[in-house]
Amino acid sequence: MFTKRFILKKIGQMLLHVIFWYGVLLFYTYFFGVDSSDFSYVKSFSFFLMPITIATTYVFIYKLIPDYLITKRYFLFGLYSLYTFIISAYLIVISVFYGLVYLSNFEESNMAPISKSLLFVGIAVYLVVIIVSAFKLLKLNLKHAEDTKKLETKILETQLKLKEQELNYLKMQIHPHFLFNTLNTMYGFALKKADETPEMILKLSNLLDYLLYQVDKPFVALQDEINHINDYIELEKMRFNDTLQIHFKTENILEDMQIAPMLLLPFVENSFKHGSLKKGVLQVNIQLRCEGNHIVFKIENTNTNNETSEKGIGLENIKKRLDLLYKAAYQLKIDDTTELFKVHLELDITP
């Protein structure tokens, strides 16, 4: 099947060449037949020019242009083009003498008027060469542009796959990290046989559903992230009892606003995990507001350890995810002092 298709393609190309050169022959016959009634002379002179034109044209389109011009070997292209021009010009001179000697019997008056001029004969030949060469150059440039576009598309697809794999890797890091901390909290309640254990299991169930199923989505509703932050806060309230003072304030949350899943929750988790009790109390303040398509998220907690930002996998993970998902559309500022640990995130989620 492949061989048959290849043969048919080659036959089609040959037919196109034959038709084209037949058209060139008609052009020569008409051009050199101006002001001449000797059709036999014009036909013979045109036939004599055809091999010169074909040879010169094919040298340019199959050798000089693809091997030297396209590859930017300009010196060799110019040098070999000059050689080709000299040889073809010599053959054009021979054609004029052919018309004078063999077709007119040394009688210049018997020659077709235009065929007497080397200039007009050269123009006729090189006009065909230039037109065909220009078409060949255009075709090669279009092919190069198409190949470049395919390569760019392939590179882009590869980059997207790498980005997707990195994001999946980061999500896989979140799963055990977050799950371990939450199960550890529930384990403590189970040991104490606390009455809050059933409620804690329900909250944990909601969080696990979000963690295991919703987090694989590229985006979730911002309200879903807020709801699971609230569930996590309730779990921590049970663990800290009276040693926790937390305020979570939201403003202007739009129903259709979406965000990458588990983008804000790790910051909240980090504030509980690495926050320090001050005068027997851990203070956490969280603010989340929307300004059009702009999200402003602030969180601060009491702190007595300057290494807070270096601990755990959460913050480094979230920075990488922000770089991959939002690139230049976010600003993240982290202040780590002996008194407070502050996070200020501004996120532009314009569609």
TrEMBL record:
Cite the InterPro entries for this sequence.
Answer: Bact_2-comp_sensor_kinase, HATPase_C_sf, Sig_transdc_His_kin_internal
- The residues that cross the membrane are 12-32, 44-62, 74-98, 118-138
User: Looking at the keywords, is Transmembrane present?
Assistant: yes
Q: Name one GO molecular function term.
A: phosphorelay sensor kinase activity
Report keywords, A-Z: Kinase, Membrane, Transferase, Transmembrane, Transmembrane helix
Cite the Gene3D superfamilies for this sequence.
Answer: Histidine kinase-like ATPase, C-terminal domain
UniProt cross-references to Pfam families, sorted A to Z: His_kinase (PF06580)
- Could you tell me which residue ranges the Signal transduction histidine kinase internal region domain spans? 166-244
Protein's name in the database? Histidine kinase
Organism per entry: Algibacter marinivivus
